[in-house]
Amino acid sequence: MAQCRNCEFHNLPGVVLCGRCGASLVLATAAIDVRPPRASWIQKLARRLPLYRYWWQFRIRSDRPASTDSRRKFVPFPSLVDLMRLLIPGWPQIAAGQREIGLALMLGFLVILALSGPIYGSWPGYLLIATACGIHAGGLYHAALQTGLGHERRRLRFLASLVGVALAVYVPASYGLASLVEPISVQLPRPPLERGDVYMIARRGRRLRPGDLVVYQIYGNNVAVRTGTRVELVQGARIDRILAGPGDRVDWTGATLMVNSVPCQYTPLNATFRPGSFALTIPEGCYLIVPSTERGPVESLTVMPVGFWQSLCVVPEYRIQGRVFWRSAPLARVGVPF
Amino acid sequence: MARFGKLEYDNERSGPRSGRPEGTQGATVSPADQALEERRCGHYENALRLYSRALEDDRSQVGCWVGQVQMLVQLGESVEAEIWCRKALELFPGNGDLLAGRAQAMGRVGDVVAALVLSDGSLKAAGQSAYRWQVRGELMVMSKQETDRHCFDKAKQVDPDWMVSLESARSYLHLKVPSRGLERIRSAVERAPDRYFAWYTQGEIELALGFESAARTSWQRCLELAPGHVDAERQLLGLNSGWSAGRIWRRLFGGK
Questions:
Q1: Chain A residue whose CA is closest to B127
Q2: Considering the entire predicted model, what is its pTM?
């Protein structure tokens, strides 16, 4: 009688396979490799990485038929739809049936983001944007909590979703926003501009025309203004109004600025500013912008020759950074400027 | 001085000790028994080799196949353990312990659903063993069910050996639930206070819980029982050094 080592069933002599369990009865001397496969140290190292574990989970899940996947909450790898839901705050919660939490997150995010719009560029604006991002991050953490995973996996999932959402939403959004609008803050008081004012400039949009308030660059080699014994170089970014467009004939020899022999309907930002006398034609691709907010005494500028005014006030289009359309700080003066 | 000649001294105190019982150091012990002893000392690599050697002599020893799988799992090679278990199950179809081993391996690689199915099969299979209940308990922890304690208790009931409590504690440690593992390892230490591996594991669990002074005491006790225990020395060195990145991480975020 040959007893099976597996199930202890007594088989008849001469039988090769166990009649009950099917195990080999001549296994003791069979030619079988008994040395198990081993993991290399690189494999062991890789298996300790969280990314590997996620990849492995994905492999397991993709190998398994959908019908046997009755305990999906144990599998931490989210589907593509789940990932897409993470991009919008509150959506994962709404999809999971937690409607109140989801709507609260979504509305909170949208309201705070909307409030930050008019004061974008100022510190309260940045604070509101950070709060909105915090709400989104809170939603992601809440979604990670709902997975029922262990502490470490939950933390990893939260971090991964945070990075993923940042890369998928916030980085492109911030680049896109920066290509459209840009906040510029006034560092030195230049009446009527006050220190701490923040102006929003549109980098793209409609074509510039006389009357638009713009930010433009004055290059340093243009002029030095003598203020007492000090010589100041007129350079850097300035905000002022376009007074005449390309091809216009400008004459400021009299009391008022004449554009194409008609009194100009616009004034520089500092209306009291009166440059020296000059008459010129604005070349193509250029605009007339008078740096009226210059800090130096007006008298020091009035003595300059015509060539000086031409180099200072005729601004090529490429030096114009954008059109000023909004003042977002201080809070008391938020609105359309001037 | 002849009257002192018959006094019984603790012979082990006279020289360096390996921590193993003397009977196991003889040449007459079978490789399977040696493997078991190595396993009790925490030398899983040696135990795996000895299980392989035992199988070279007789391939029909199911316990050695199960032991190989267990050692691979303990060595963190669960993927290989699962592959090896599949092979063993071809030779011993429906073996409960092999099914449990495969369940443990699959659970550790993250496929808890399949592991639970295999564990169900292992418990339905003929016979019973502590290992099947241990695996069941581990899977209960993985699937966030509260019955893990009962499973480990059942394992202890089936086999009251201290090693069962120790391996239960190591399961808890692996699953990052050291608080539940502490009572298991204390039970193991109470039953086998002369086993350095129990003290070493207790130190590991205490450190995971943040009880640094208790861990230091446990490892010192481990070193008393097995002078030159490399892991215990390394752990103590880490504790005694002023700071380390791991320690700061543990302080800030918890965990092992």
A1: A7
A2: 0.53
Q: Chain A closest CA to B32's CA: distance in Å?
A: 14
The whole-chain average pLDDT of chain B stands at: 86
Q: Is the peptide bond before A124 cis (omega within 30 degrees of 0)?
A: no
**Over the stretch A220-233, which tens digit does the pLDDT of each residue have?**
555 555 555 555 56
Q: pLDDT by residue (tens digit) across A104-153?
A: 999 999 999 999 999 998 899 999 999 999 999 999 998 888 877 777 77
Q: Which residue has the higher pLDDT, B7 or B14?
A: B7
Length of chain B counted residue by residue: 256
Q: pLDDT-based confidence at A72, cuts 50/70/90?
A: very low
Tell me if A301 sits within 8 A of A276, measured CB to CB: yes
pLDDT tens digits, one per residue of A177-192: 988 998 988 887 777 8
- Residues of chain B with Cβ-Cβ distance to A44 below 8 Å are 76-77
Which DSSP category does A168 fall into?
I
Q: Does A55 touch chain B (CB under 8 A)?
A: no
Nearest to A223 by CA among A291, A155, A168: A291
Q: Considering CB atoms only, which of A36, A64, A151 is closest to B84? A: A36
Contact B92 A64 (CB under 8 A): no
Closest by CA to A176, choosing from A201, A203, A198, A200, is A203
Q: Which of B77, B38, A62 is nearest to B51 (CA)?
A: B38
Cα pseudo-dihedral A264, A265, A271, A275, rounded to 10 = -10
Nearest 5°: the CA angle A177, A182, A184 is: 155
Terminal-to-terminal C-alpha distance of chain A:
108
Residue A258 — left, alpha, or beta (φ > 0 → left; ψ -120 to 50 → alpha)?
beta
Distances (CA, A) of A218 to A186, A221, A239, A321: 16, 9, 10, 11
Work out whether the CA dihedral B211, B214, B217, B223 comes out positive or negative: negative
A63 to chain B, closest Cα gap in Å:
11
Three-state DSSP class for residue A263:
strand
